[in-house]
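ingest -> validate -> predict -> emit
validate: passed (alphabet ok, no gaps, 106 aa)
predict: started
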Amino acid sequence: MHWFHLAIATVFEIVFALGARAANGFTRLVPSVVTLVAAAGGIFFLSLALRTLDVGVGYTIWTGIGSIGTVVIGAFLFKERLTAARAACFAVIILGVVGLRVAAGA
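emit:
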């Protein structure tokens, strides 16, 4: 169940980051509210996952997958540039996340 909680937390993390960009410095109401709710949801579900997972593993996976999701979706939503060098660096992050998942066990 802890991996499920971590997955939910990661979705909230992605929504939080994208919402923060869309909120334009908290000057737009709806994206600002979405950002705050997503931040609270992400932290809540992360805390549930950390009941079982080591904090170093859980937090690193949460931020790693959240970062990748934010970059990929942000490239589509906000027309942000995704270069080959950036993609290679993100691949390294993904390898690290997979390695942590394997090392932590199912």
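The chain has four helices and no strands.
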